[in-house]
Amino acid sequence: MPAPPPPPLPAPTLSPLVPADAGACLALDRAALGGLWSLEQWRRELEEEGRPGLGLRQGPDLLAMASGWLVVDELHITLVAVAPDQRRRGLGRRVLQELMAAGRARGASRATLEVAAGNGPGIALYGALGFRTAGIRHGYYRNGEDALIQWVNLAMGP
Known about the structure:
GO terms for molecular function: acyltransferase activity, transferring groups other than amino-acyl groups. With 158 residues, the chain is an alpha+beta fold.
């Protein structure tokens, strides 16, 4: 008799990122984005007030995350990452929408981010959530690629 199939995995759950998540954030950052931040930068990001961060987990695994900085009435989205094997499942959209809602709840009326000019999936996601390009940062990324500066009015809702 064949073994029964394994039970289905639970749906990913959303929770705030905390300092104890620094190692998991570093690992996801490296896998999804090539390692934007060091472990020390992740620790600072997760310890400081005014820097909301959210993660989507399935069991012990961090599948997606988004983080930002609250500056007066603006949410500057610093990072959105999804594990490469979890892409195209709506996880990036979900974690970003929740971060935008958290920023709005904490008084942000607008949100901004930079996205690589060649990042078609990212540009499509941000556009679907209402972001519009307001400018370009030439040579912004380490590889020399330009960044599109995008803004959205959070009063309109994600």
